[in-house]
Design a protein that fits this description.
CATH architecture of one domain: 2-Layer Sandwich
CATH topology of one domain: Nucleotidyltransferase, domain 5
Strand order of the largest sheet: 5-4-3-6-7
Distance between the termini: 70 Å
Shape: extended
CATH superfamily of one domain: Ribonuclease H-like superfamily/Ribonuclease H
Number of strands: 7
Helix content: 25-40%
CATH class of one domain: Alpha Beta
Mean pLDDT: 85
Largest sheet: 5 strands, mixed
Length: 377
Amino acid sequence: MNELQQKHPLEPISAEQFLLLQKQNVELLLQTKQLQSDNAFLRQELDNLKRMIFGSKSERFVAVDSDQLPLFGVPQAESAEPVKESITYERNKPSESNKNVPVRLALPAHLPRVEEVIEPREDITGAKKIGETITEILEYTPGKLFVKKYIRPKYILSNPESIVIGQLPSFPIPRGNAGSGLLAHLLISKFVDHLPFYRQVQMFKRQEVQIAESTINDWFTATCRLLEPLYEKLQEKVRRCDYLMVDETPIAVLSKDHPQATHKGYHWFYYSPVEKLVCVDYQQGRGRDGPTAFLKDFHGAIQTDGYSVYDIFEIEGKSRLLACMAHARRKFDQALNNDRARAQKMLTLMQPLYEIEQIAREYKLTFNERKILRQKM
């Protein structure tokens, strides 16, 4: 026991001992505040983790119906009797004979029709047709491969004497035997329908067509080279815009260096809302090199989630950084369980902004009309 603990409670203490007690009290208060702060932080982290694993992904917020929300203290919801209303409508009563017959929607009119006429088994010689009953059934024929054969007759001319033959059209892959339709199907199946090449090889085998997966990989590489000029043109058009939304997302990447494992790569998205253009740039990391190289000739406004790598554009004076309202609002939504009163206050203030945007979407307003609506409201 120290000197202070050995003192009798009623025994007076010296000024030096009193100052020591004050110092210990201050230290305990500081420790208590730190523990309270750590506890609040950990509770917030736990709440975010539960939200990610078990919670709803929606960030919809319904404000409490009150003229003014208090900054401190959670308002108590008042219990109220639900308001009842009667709703009446009229409908056609189904007949007893058709009561259990399911109602089917008409099949799309744009689909081609293959007609099959079914005559009665009875002898209809001399019978008079009085009508017909039509039944439509939706059918499906799997996509089939076919061979397109180019036949080029050769001719010999007499004056002057020479041999002539028709010229072949240009093919996507020189000296290749894959048509443009097949190449487009391979890429759409892979990137739109998420069918890997080995599954497509299995599908071709069911049609008794053997295509090696290595051959398809070569076709894929050659087709991507054909698309490079289009990608370069897309980059050029995106860079000419004066307003871009930029974000990055991680992806798992397979490489020859690590065939049994994946590494984390990043897709950087550059979206122009005005031009409705989006360009994707792959980078191995999340550093500043990617956006710095892509946006080196860009001059305009960049809207991001606040990631610090974009600060260099505003520091150099080349571009103006814009914040994202959705990301800012998300922090207050996550703070509802930590400090509901103040978080709810901020979410309530943000609601009119989203109502304005909803009106603009419903009436399909142009960008200039949206600006006028925001200024008026």
